Amino acid sequence: MKFNGLLFFVTLIGWLLLYNKASAQLLPCATPAESHDSIISREKRLLQLKSQFVKNARISGLKAVQYLPIKAHILRNTDGTGGLSMADLNTALVQINRFYQNVGSGLQFYFCGSPNFINNSTYYDFDNTEEAVLCNANDVSNAINIYFPNSIYFGSFAVAGYAYFPSTVNNSNRVFVQAQYATDNRTLAHELGHYFNLLHTFQNSTNTNNAEREYVTRDGIQGANCNTKGDLICDTPADPYGRDSVSIQGCSYTGSARDPKGQLYAPSLSNIMSYYSVSCGSSFTAGQYARMTDGFLLRTDPANQYTASCGPTVTGANVPGNLTGTPVVSGLLLTFSDNSSNESGFIIERSVISASEGFSVIGALPPNTTTFTDQATMAYTTYYYRVKASNSSTQYSPVFTITTALNYCIPSFSNSCSSIEVVIDDFILSQGATNVINNINTNCSTDSYGDFTGVVYNVTAGATYTFTARARSNADGLGSYFDQHLTIWADLDQDGLFELNERFYRSDSLVSMPRMSPTATGSFVIPNTAGGLVRLRVRSSFNLGPGSAVTDPCGQLTFGETEDYMLQVNSSAPASITTGAVTPGTVCAGQAVSVSFTGANLLSTSYTVQLSDASGSNFVSIPTTGTNSPLMATIPVNSASGTGYKVRVISTSPSIIGSASAAFTINATPAAPTASTPIGYCQSQMAEALTASGSNLKWYTAAVSGTGSPSAPTPSTTAPGTVSYWVSQTVSGCESARTKIDVTVTATPAAPTASTPIGYCQSQMAEALTASGSNLKWYTAAVSGTGSPSAPTPSTTASGTVSYWVSQTVSGCESARTKIDVTVTATPAAPTASTPINYSQGQTPVQLSAVGSNLQWYTTSSGDVGSTTAPIPSTATLGTADYYVSQTVNSCESSRTVVQVIVTAPATAAVCINVALFLEGPYLGSQSMTTKLNQLGLLPGQTPVSPLGVPTPAGQPYTGVPWNYTGSETVASYPLNTVDWVLVSLRTGPQNASTTVFRTAALLLSNGNVSFLSSCPVLPTNQPYYIAVEHRNHMGVVSHQAISVNNNTLSYNFSTRQSYIPAGSPANGQKQLAGGIYVLYAADCTKNPLSQIDANDTSKWRADNGRVGRYLLSDFNLDGAPDANDNTLWRLNNGRFSGVNF
Hints:
Immunoglobulin-like, five-stranded mixed beta sheet, Fibronectin type-III domain-containing protein, 71 strands, mainly beta
């Protein structure tokens, strides 16, 4: 599938060692960098999305922590071997959550359900040409699809991963990362950076068009283009990666590449979106986080073909529970209960703020693992922990809270001294003849560790102490012992660690440092800097020969014992502080000074500098940094000028106030200079040098830092926008705060928009010209002239084109002029038409016509609304009617031509009717019908032949419902070939009986001809007529078309063709018999408006069945006897209807 403008980035895995150059440089992308047009298109889409969400405050993308689901697809061999482990999968999740918690208010990922394991060796080592087949079968539309194959190839290039930029199409909702790079703390975060709209830091760095490269400078005055070139982010330094002159030494850039302005590049080697070594660090900038915040908005666009709607899997009572923690040697051991069977792993989070905020992820566990050791805890700190399944979003365990103490490691031995007595049986610490510690005959401690810190032993800083350690108690002097090494440490800095510089004694082969065989003795001095509670550790180990001395205070040894004691170190003399010199001797308010000092018998590492008033009295603390001499202190910015200021150093623990320093001078900070701001210019307007009121002015391009210039800058008005400048003044060597001056260059506004050309017809009423813009000015020339605020009204007296110009003024800046052409078109001639047009009354008229373009027809000579459809005149009424027509040329309408239509009385004559038809049932074939009713004497007015017969009164039979025909037609004696009576009518519309103009009853003869008993009707001869025929128990028919009067006669034969059927209707006309003869359908005896044969007809037959010798409606075959033959005809025709109204 082809993506419109959608490019993807591929991070290659090959590491290239280039000696002293790029020590670990990634190969280039396997596809071209994204085009400028594609980037701009996506930026426009982002602006549209932001505008849509202005009302609900989603402009910035993320306003609270957002949780996004990831569908992990792990590719393995067909037999299920290989593939990313669950432990590494969860570690990868932790790594990206650490990076992306800074996107907006926080972006965190979780797994959508369980991983999708794809056991297919074909895709295990993946080639990008296989993407469509693989992903179309496995993609989900409600989470980010991340595929972890064993390897990824683009042709012959092995790559670490790739991803797509934000797009609405579902194909872009994919990320690919090679399994071995999932946990390298770079690749997955890098590809997700592309997913959320980040470009490489070296975008277009090798473009042959220098104008497309990003410049090093970030100074707008120097032409910085970081907002529009490179990766479009200004806090990521321009990156020349890909150029021949790029080199690094370790993690320091040493290249000589320069940008198009000649400035040396200084790229960031730690940026995640660069191609430098992972060993140089992995980080995003604030600008990149902001851009990914916008990328999140693109990825959650409702118009996308994918969503982030995959919900959490482990919820409710199934979330982890019973979270608790225990201090251990290596930190804090957390345990919890696993209450689910479908977790993908677990995520551990920690906060040092509270139980409801400040949490960040610290680790991950594979499924079914419920212990985790936090090795990054500090003493005396309150921690808050919570756990969730990695396939859940906000469904956490209850928070566990713990406050740590000073946590010392508990050393261990692989063999307990309870089994083999390798022990410290006596330990004695003495000062002179006085025993401070006298712990003897202790034998083996539990687990080979004796904790004797419950008793505090007083010692003095600076004093020398002697110790004696025995492997066998001196109480009895008997028994065996084991030769042991011995080491003693003291945690002098009280940080919970026994460090190398805190080791007092370690036995070796020298006489001065004897082993405990069975007695070791020695001495050490408590440093003068020590103080407070200090833990003393004594540890032994079985002598295994050279190299077996005890060096580790915590690690596991084979045989031996450890004992801990608690010393209270007291000072031997009062503590004091002597404050030294202040540098410099004259300082400006707000600046920092260096304060030296010396301390005696002082154990503190927390000091503060205090400042007096100008008379050397009333000391107050000022901001101080440092833990030893010299300290750095900041003079309060509001200090008044004076020459008698002094400082002193104090200690907060213990509380010691130092001596005062010699007097020094403080000069007050002068007020910032005054200046007009903002200053406005129009684009390209001549600017003047900036001015300000003050002494010894210095001009800057930044609010802080930078080097000031004594020369006032002249702003550039080339480009629109606001550029800020800063100015300070210096009085008595002290520089003031900087005054900000904003120079706003207003872009030349766009020319106003206006419709052009504007067309008028000659002599048409014109309106004043209009344009869209502010503060419009109207001109009669393209340049120069004086504009008018009043829009002109064009003249339409003469044909031709006249031009006008209009500009707009925005923020005092006038735009270019927009040209408006006004074209006046000459009035065209009226169209030509034949007139008058004569019709006789009732004659069928034809549509009027005229010669011209874009005709408009009217019924009045002026005004009214014309029609583009020519009228068809009415011939119903005698008289003359006037119609009018105009033509429109070039949108201008002509005068109207009158077309006169004269309707005169039509010619009339006696019109005779010749019609023929056959009835189904009586029809015998060979174009002949039975005359059985006539033979039996059953026609109206006849005497039945059978004595059982019932006569019917004379006269036509259509007087009743539904015909209601009142004609007086009758016969005294029927012709021998008479079949039955029919009702014949003429109408002007085929379907509507209301258009009937004539009706008469007539005799139907056996040859199909109709014999009329009444005289021919007098009718207009210019009108064609439809002939309709009805029979009392057959479906009525209408001629298929209107029949014209020919020689005062209307002739039509229904038997030779199908009768009228309404267009598009499923109705029926006549039945076609073998030989092509058409006959009227039989069995319609209960008439309805559409002549339908239905159950009412068979009901009538059932009522009359067997009643012979009568003139009945239910006698469908006209044989004088309703019987089964008639019912057969009904069954054949049931459901037939004509669709014509009679």
